[in-house]
Amino acid sequence: MIKYLGSKRTLLPLITSTIQQLTPQGTVVDLFSGTARVGHALKQAGYRVRSNDINAYAATLATCYVQADRAEWAEAAEALLAELGTVEGRAGYFTETFCQQSRFFQPKNGARVDAIRDEIAARSLPPELEAIALVSLMEAADRVDSTTGVQMAYLKKWASRASNDLSLRLPALVEQAASGKGEASHLDALEAAKVLTGDVAYLDPPYNQHKYLGNYHIWETLVRWDAPEAYGVARKRLDCRQRKSPFNSRPRIRDALAAVVGDLDVRHLVVSFSNEGYISRDDMIALLSSRGEVLVIERDYKRYVGAKIGIYSPGGDKVGAVSHLSNKEYLFVVTEDPDRLRGL
Predict the structure, then answer these.
(1) What pTM was computed for the model?
(2) Cβ of 312: how many Cβ atoms within 10 Å?
(3) Structure confidence by residue, pLDDT tens digits, 118-140
């Protein structure tokens, strides 16, 4: 899967085992699905997952990893990717914007992205098969990028992987879960909380001012394929400036999360949050207590790789020191049946 700030890869066993303790089967609502890494793991564990994310690239990842089932699509996807892998590069918007106006990718790979993405668009594929192809292309580009893992900037010198040739691979599709077919939606979380129901809701909201749209704007453009007007050194989409979320606002995040928590029709809640977030541990407990007993599990967590490298100016000069290399990740577990918490 793609490199991702805030990925819960190392916390997957804890998240999965916690949800299994709350309910051994059933439906999990993943309201801020991101890379769909958690939804993918829960689907493998047998849960029906209902994923949601406001960003188009994230909804596409969930369509591939949560909604699409291996038995239905693997053979067709393998054949499609083999055909797309023979498409010759043809430079277009992607190459000009992300290889010439900026340096996220080598031009040879940018031209391949342009040509393959155009071919995907021209085929009018079924939505799940299209999502698989787009995720394969996204992940292929991610393997040859030149960043620290976010798309706010690119490395001053080319990453060694950037010289490799872009190559498509079949994403790690899994079979339909025992609890039922998963689904992916593309809604604002405040709206999704009103319509998505299940046994457990897993919430991993943005926790500070950093917007996932800005951090991964290239993937948004790759999926939307809308050739947006771009700005700045990183050539971000204009809607990175225009789209505002209460979850990225210190004054607004608490009320927004309280609205989500109040609207969700589920029996249990599992909430991931960081001690670097806008809501403190105690305030989060107070907010969640309206839904039942609250247990807090704490884990030390390494910050993303950019924090280890340091703080640099746009010209590439080091301008500051990193204050810390790890933080605390909280897993808040909420249930109306407190007996279930005794086993956690």
Answers:
(1) 0.91
(2) 15
(3) 999 999 999 999 999 999 999 99
Provide the number of structural domains found in the chain: 2
55/200 same-domain check = yes
Which string of b and e fits 148-169 if b means at least 16 CB within 10 Å?
bbbbbbbbeeeeeebeeebebe
Of the CA atoms within 13 Å of residue 310, those in its CB half-sphere come to 9
* CA-CA-CA-CA dihedral for 43, 171, 185, 234, to nearest 10: 130
- Structural domain that includes position 143: 70-173+212-244
pLDDT of residue 314: 45
For 46-73, the pLDDT digits (tens) are 999 999 999 999 999 999 999 999 999 9
Q: How many CB atoms lie within 10 A of CB 199?
A: 18
Q: 301 by DSSP, 3-state: which?
A: strand
5 shares its domain with 141 = no
List, in order, residues 6 or more apart from 264 with CB less than 8 Å away: 29, 31, 193, 196, 201
